[in-house]
Amino acid sequence: MEDKKYIIEVEPALDAKDGRPSMGPVYRSVFAKEGFPSPIDGLDSCWDIFRMSAEKYPDNKMLGTREFVDGKHGKYVWLTYKQVYDKVIQAGNSIRACGVEPGGKCGIYGVNCAEWTMSMEACNAHGLHCIPLYDTLGNFFTILFHAGADAVEFIIGHAEVTIVFVEEKKISEVLKTFPKAGEYLKTIVSFGQVTPEQKEQFKNFGATIHSWDEFLSLGKDKQFDLPVKKKTDICTIMYTSGTTGDPKGVLISNNSIVTVIGGVSRLLDSCNESLTEHDVYLSFLPLAHIFGRVIEECFIHHGGSIGFWRGDAKLLIEDIGELKPTIFCAVPRVLERIYSGLQQKVSSGSFLKNKLFNLAYSYKLYNMKGGSKHSEASILSDKLVFAKVKQMLGGRVRIILSGAAPLSSHIEGFLKVVACCHVLQGYGLTETCAGSFVSIPNEMGMLGTVGPPVPNLDARLESIPEMNYDALASTPQGEICIRGDTVFSGYYKRDDLTKEVLIDGWFHTGLLILARCDIGEWQPDGSMKVIDRKKNIFKLAQGEYVAVENLENIYVLVPAVDEVWVYGNSFESCLVAVVNPNKRSIESWARENDISEEFDSICQNPKTKEYLLGELNRIGKEKKLKGFEFIKAVHIDPVPFDIERDLLTPTLKKKRPQMQKYYQSIIDEMYKSTKN
Q1: What UniProt keywords are attached to this protein's entry (predicted)?
Q2: What is the count of structural domains for the chain?
């Protein structure tokens, strides 16, 4: 089979000099061999993205919400591009009628919905800075500021937000930010209704709150000219949730988002998977996160349709079935749950069904590894065996895109076979406007990687000598660095941090103040493999380095484990872990071992801990882990790691400092047990 390489070298490597480490060659996508995508005439801002699509696709369905009739959710009801445009113009006039001028700061707080997107577009129309608010930055704020100030209050004050659009059930959270927020915040707009009591409460603080319909009427008889928007203008300030440290306001320009759209379009066009006005997307990735925002902008640019979920993870599959999306974007945690559900269905089937599934899986996987496209690898298996999986995702999905965190290779590989669609993995940060690397359709060799660079940026690796990562080695490894118009404009009110990470036009994924960086390894085909994050590498007492994310991806392969958090530090000689067990698997094991207790009690049973520790060690031996990488003690938490306890970010990444704080007494007990 012909070797393919999806990158080209555009600048040579640099040796170490003047205290700076060596740097590998600069690469870009082979799809940008003749240059990056040319600018589109008239497309200079996020407002132009929507405006041009409203002109081109006025009658196409744009925003869909499930109707609620007789106490039940029914079909999706749609607003066309023209209808949304008219409401956006009205909303923009109402914002201006409240005294907010171009360049002002507008907050949006709540779950994804049509009003969220319309509020965002109204900001785009009038050159306002759209600032997503969310309370899941977590209780770490209490530690930072010693005053109980939560994330919403912090962002409103730091960004000087004067008007906030808010989900109805979040109104009480906004009220809690007063009186402090009242220094700037004067107008609140509910996406739903407002009670007389709420009006009075805000009035007492010198602020005004409107229902959505009341607000739209404010600008009904007014017409404000739309200001000229430039590419360099800031369109949004995204506050990073972060897994450590003080959240930062990331300044994203119009040009960054427009450039991302051009690069994604070039990539998909080059792979014959272009987005079109017929594509449908389920919006459930938080719009307060850059991944969700950029995906929606891409769909709007192509005139696609966006249906909103109901905000309940338990109902997500039902929403998918009703909407029947063609593109499904998710974070790994969601795909892990889909994978677990499928595995349970397979294992609970009859011997014959099990045998048929495994034969079909092995045959299709063999053909895909041999170079066959997923749609041609086993047409019969797709029809007879895997069609039900496709129907579970609505029956029309042609691309699944995973981002925001690493997706385990075994889950990615499994879904590539059974989902009957492309399963792609991407990589990016808020500071690089999301997608910087994306894997290529029908390339099984990219399994476990995030693919080559998107064709709108340059990438290189920088050596990390103290970690023995060499960007000039035969297998180049080092800190991932990115250059291009997608890179952010700086951290709001933090020029000091901006200077640390933007060096000679390159964004360094290492935030020096947090000792964090993403460590990559170039693959022969030009794809990037993210080995680990420097902040997720620590030393044990004997001096051995532990790449903790890599270990967690191995230990989670145990069928009885849904999720695992591995902990260690430089004062201890071994690793311990907190495990979220797989309920069905553990209960099945308990029955086989004559343990008849409730699930919570099973999890506390010493025999269960002994069993799980044995399973973790078994997989460790199977994967040939080093002695110091084995888990020596385990705690079983029957409650999954969650956002509510501040253990996960909005994109479901582990918040390691918060997890350590939450489980500290348990960690101490585990280490005590290893020494007895």
Answers
A1: ATP-binding, Fatty acid metabolism, Ligase, Lipid metabolism, Nucleotide-binding, Phenylpropanoid metabolism
A2: 3
More confident call, 188 vs 649: 188
| Six token digits for residue 674 | 């290893």
Query: Which of 448, 515, 505, 513 has the alpha carbon at shortest distance from 481?
Result: 505
Question: Average pLDDT in the 100-122 region?
Answer: 97
Residues 6+ apart with CB under 8 A from 57: 81, 277, 303
Q: What's the token pair of residue 58?
A: 């006025």
The confidence score (pLDDT) of residue 451 equals: 97
Report the C-alpha gap between 71 and 73 in whole angstroms. 7
CA triplet 518, 523, 526: central angle to 5 degrees? Answer: 95
Same domain, 515 and 626: no
pLDDT digits (tens, 9 = 90+) for 201-249: 999 999 999 999 999 999 888 999 999 999 999 999 999 855 445 578 9
Domain-embedded: residue 319? no
Rg (CA), the chain: 25
Contacts of 565 (CB under 8 A, 6+ apart): 552, 577, 578, 579, 641, 654, 656, 659, 663
Q: CB pairs under 8 A, 24+ apart, for 589-597? A: 589/560
CATH of the domain at 31: 2.30.38.10
435 contacts 484 by C-beta, under 8 angstroms: no
What is the three-class DSSP state of 276? coil
Q: Residue 335 is encoded by which pair of tokens?
A: 């795909």
Residues 551 and 485 in one domain: no
DSSP helix/strand/coil, 197: helix
Q: What mean pLDDT do residues 9-34 have?
A: 96
**pTM (2 decimals)?**
0.81
Amino acid identity at 140: F
340 closest CA partner among 633, 560, 666, 605: 560
In the structure encoding, which two tokens stand for residue 362, read together? 């092995």
